[in-house]
Design goal:
Elements (H helix, E strand, L loop, with lengths): L1 E6 L4 E8 L3 E9 L1 H5 L6 H23 L8 E7 L3 H18 L3 E5 H12 L7 E6 L4 E8 L2 E7 L5 H11 L7 H8 L24 H17 L5 H27 L3 E5 L6 H14 L2 E3 L10 H13 L21
Parallel strand pairs: 1-4, 4-5, 6-9, 9-10
Antiparallel strand pairs: 1-2, 2-3, 6-7, 7-8
Helix pairs in contact: 2-3, 4-10, 5-7, 5-8, 6-8, 8-9
Length: 337
């Protein structure tokens, strides 16, 4: 089954063709990161307009790269939530028109489910059940994946997402947007241990997380040093910040493994590309005897292939959408509206 998939939830326009949920025939992506870097973050209106400009051409490219014609497409999948509402609407509107024109089913896909499904592309042997640590710019979740479309959130951030905090910390350290990769490169230049940064604990919810206090602490450290004319060890601060994020993520993921009895842990999302967090996950899983699946860096960020992968399993589960499909800025992972 050949699925033409669309992803436009933030600042990447992505179109892919995926066969049977596991084989990527093409994956065309146009990033807007350089443009938004001028503003230090994503400007929603600009992102939406650039998606409009790019999506038709990328669709032609994805089909050409796959060596297929429009007649070879069996279904269309699209991210319909969550994300920047204007950006998501572009993908949804275009996908609806393509599905209607081709006379094929339209499959709605939750963005975070797509990130988790990216692991199916990298690891053909991976099957549920497993535990997923979904860490990105907009979401930080611990998810029990019981089956391909049966998922339950066990823990989540109460405020900021881990990826958002990386971007904010990078900004105060004078690093470019997006901040994840520059922060990772800077952190690897120091052993850290110089800055005492907070680790949050949510009373009564041991798997939930909070990153707003950590973000504020880094911002205050940088601003105070600047105002007082005191030196700031940027590399050490980047390292200590990353370690603080990891110390919130990894122990909770391992605790969730203990609580559920799962034997497999999957990482997903842009923050899963961080080398320090990956190393901490590897060490923790090795010590616990848990099989860890870390997606290659190309499958950590937003892409259309992950939507095509999850779209296949949503299709098998009977998920279909009509031309009245809407876009949503927020949506629970388990919702089927």
């Amino acid at each position: 089954m050949n699925i033409l998939a669309f992803e436009s939830s933030c600042d990447e326009t992505a179109v892919a063709v995926v066969r049977d949920g596991r084989t990527v025939l093409s994956d065309a992506i146009l990033s807007q990161a350089d443009m938004h870097a001028l503003y230090g973050g994503v400007v929603p209106e600009i992102a939406s307009r650039k998606h409009v400009e790019a999506v038709a051409g990328l669709t032609d490219k994805a089909l050409a790269d796959a060596g297929l014609t429009k007649k070879d497409i069996d279904a269309v999948a699209v991210t319909y939530a969550p994300g920047l509402i204007g950006a998501v609407l572009v993908g949804v509107s275009f996908a609806k028109s393509v599905a209607y024109a081709l006379g094929v089913p339209l499959i709605p896909v939750h963005h975070i489910r797509g990130h988790i499904a990216a692991n199916y592309l990298a690891f053909p042997e991976l099957t549920p059940p497993f535990l997923a640590l979904a860490i990105s710019g907009g979401n930080t979740l611990i998810v029990d994946v019981r089956d391909y479309t049966d998922m339950e959130i066990l823990g989540a951030t109460r405020d900021d997402a881990a990826g958002e905090c990386f971007d904010k910390a990078a900004r105060v350290l004078g690093l470019p947007y997006p901040g994840g990769k520059p922060m990772d490169e800077l952190a690897r230049q120091s052993a850290g241990g110089e800055y005492d940064l907070p680790r949050a604990h949510v009373e009564g919810a041991e798997l939930d997380m909070s990153f707003s206090g950590l973000k504020t602490a880094v911002v205050n450290l940088a601003h105070n040093a600047q105002q007082k004319g005191e030196p700031l060890d940027a590399a050490a601060l980047a390292r200590d910040f990353t370690k603080a994020v990891s110390d919130e993520l990894v122990p909770r993921a391992m605790r969730a493994i203990e609580m559920t009895g799962r034997t497999k842990l999957v990482a997903a999302g842009g923050v899963a590309a961080n080398s320090i967090i990956r190393a901490d996950l590897e060490a923790a899983c090795a010590a616990a005897g848990v099989k860890l699946y870390l997606p290659p860096l190309r499958w950590c960020g937003d892409n259309g292939a992950m939507i095509g992968a999850q779209g296949y399993y949503e299709y098998l589960a009977g998920r279909r959408a009509g031309l009245d499909l809407n876009a949503y800025a927020t949506m629970d992972l388990g919702s089927t509206k």
